[in-house]
Amino acid sequence: MDIKLMDIVGRRSYNCDILFRVIDFRKINDQKFAILYGEDFRIVADAPYNDLVVINQTERLKLTKEYRTLEEQSLRLFTQDVDLLKQRQEYHATGGYVKPSNYFQIPGKVLHLDGDPSYLKKCMTLYEKIGVPVLGIHCNEKEMPNKIGELMDYYRPDILVITGHDAYSKAKGKMNDINAYRHSRHFAQAVREARKKVPHLDQLVIFAGACQSHFESLIHAGANFASSPTRVNIHALDPVYIVAKVSFTPFMERINVWDVLRNTLTGDKGLGGIETKGVLRTGMPYRPIPDEDEEENQDNQDTEKV
Fold first, then answer.
1. CA angle 84, 71, 133 (to 5 degrees)
2. Domain match, 39 and 75 both
3. 63 within a domain of the structure (yes/no)
4. Three-state SS at 275
């Protein structure tokens, strides 16, 4: 079967364990190779053309059923966590439910830079479902260090996500060599540039990394959370769960790292971080401004009563 750009494929030599999108073709030593982006995991790979098999819609649904179940479970658990956070905030804001609940909350604003437009779209859908204020920008991983400063000046986020695709190549060096990774050095440099703007770890919370990324370099560069401690693949939606937890946690509370990781799809093998404060702020009073049409209707009702 002829394989085309954007086809969903699997690698025969790996028993089609991960679904990939074909994004380019190249010739290496007169052999045709395909450049692949993971469909559910933030990994980039290349594979001989002859090793690939196209996965049809029926097979895709069968192979991704487990991932969709995990996504639904993670979302359900995360939503429960957020509901508990909101209930606790309401209790404190109303003095133990004694005062009227006329307060408002401002979750942390997220700036999400993603090297993959397809993943970005999936993440934006989840942000919207959870209720996190976010601006998403598609940006090539190599360009992120040069663009991050200007974007931060313009959007002034509370939380920054720097992600896309990555992969470790044993042929390029040892696991502790950042040059053996496809994009880890670009992520690390982007984090350093962001920290030039906002050095304090609690004034700007940063998540950085993708599949198999050089975790230690990203943390040392200034990220609060990063991937991947054991160099495993991370799910495309994992960054959203991490920063959403930060966005909805009050700024006076510290976030236990395990509390952040436990509802992600990858867990502590693929994600890690340092103790960090939340960024949610509560204010009062909340005075909703009535709609002009509603005011006019109310005035008419009052006139009729008179």
1. 55
2. no
3. no
4. coil
